[in-house]
Amino acid sequence: MLAGHSLGANKVIRYLAETHDSRVDRFLLLSPANVEYLTAQVTDEEKRIVSDMCESGRGSERLPFDLLGWIPCIADTAHFPTAAQNALIFIEGTGHTYQQKEQETAERILATVQMWQKEWE
């Protein structure tokens, strides 16, 4: 598992895109850059290419374009999971740094990691 907060979340994305580190099978992005905005920058044609490559068993091949215009990566890295494969945890009443909500944030992260541990067993 790998985690990053704020620009550290962007570094997690970049690290995974560059290294394809097989040791990382789950990751946490805490207050990342606007991912919805970033994924909206991927054209329908690029999404089609990624899907076609993954579905045809070529997910470990490098994409013929840089994802988001700057990330050279393989198709598996660019294959955006569906909402069912993700969990959004929203901590109400706080901002980017979770001030006054540190304990709740820690407990929610712990619960997520414990859920993943059960899946790994």
- Strand arrangement within the widest β-sheet reads 1-2
Question: How much of the polypeptide forms β-strand, as a percent range?
Answer: 5-15%
What is the arithmetic mean of pLDDT? 83
Instruction: Please tell me what the overall shape is.
Output: globular
Largest sheet: 2 strands, parallel
Helicity level: 40-55%
Oligomer: single chain
Distance between the termini: 15 Å
- Series of H and E elements: EHEHHHH
Radius of gyration: 16 Å
Number of strands: 2
Describe this structure as you would to a colleague:
The structure is a single chain. The protein has a two-stranded parallel ribbon with strand order 1-2. It is mainly alpha-helical and 121 residues long. The radius of gyration is 16 Å and the shape is globular. The chain has five helices and two strands; from the N terminus they run E-H-E-H-H-H-H.
